[in-house]
Amino acid sequence: MPLFPTERSVRTTPEGILWEPSERWVRGRRGDVTVVDSRHPLLVWEPALPVPCYAFPREEVRMDLLRPARNPTPGRHTGSQVFYDLDAGDGSVENAAWTFPADDLAAHVAFEWFLRERSGLDHWYEEDEEIFVHPRDPHKRVDAMPSSRHVRVEIDGTVVADTSAPVLLFETGLPTRYYLPREDVRLDLFEPTDRSTRCPYKGIAGYWTWRAEGDVPGNVVWSYAEPLAAVAPIKGLLAFYNEAVDITVDGRRLPRPVTPFTAGLRP
Fold first, then answer.
1. In this structure, are 120 and 164 located in the same domain?
2. Which of 239, 243, 245 is nearest to 258 (CA)?
């Protein structure tokens, strides 16, 4: 029976891996070499990772560019049995691809991507749009909504932002982020840094650091100068890590959440 976009077809392997077919056309390159060109990818969720990866039918992968890994890394992925080194683009990449042992996934090959820079393919496309960091999760929403809530941000008792024109960004699994107009932020109290990050849902972010002393992590403020179209309302606005500053919304101070970013936010 054919699968339709409105149907959910998530399946589970004995190892606890979740997977489902995707209808997206996915391509992956290393340098100028197209290594994957797939119209039948699978989205795969490993138990220990918060985001999915793709696994591709072998016939849609340049298997001639893969060879059994010289130094395989058992335990790097859930139940993985076979690792491959990749010879393409700018040279050999160790453990760039692997297979899962589950019968459902045995005819597919997955590639490094999430949190493993320079260890897999370096350009990925869903249809004709380049995607960064990891595939977009079809079960996750990211909504940017203009609001008239009163938002105030403090650092060590100093009010650094105060606005009644925020954009609230709701992202599944993360605390609400408050994006604030620049004219309502004391940006003179911060200095830009050379940090840059990519998000598959929002785009490329630039950062600012608190100028004064105090128990404040670096790069505590960020902004998307040219966000992806789906979150266009946050363009040029500034957001603070809820985990590291004090945010008050409509007179109620929010607790500082613990998130996957907390451990990396150190003064």
1. no
2. 243
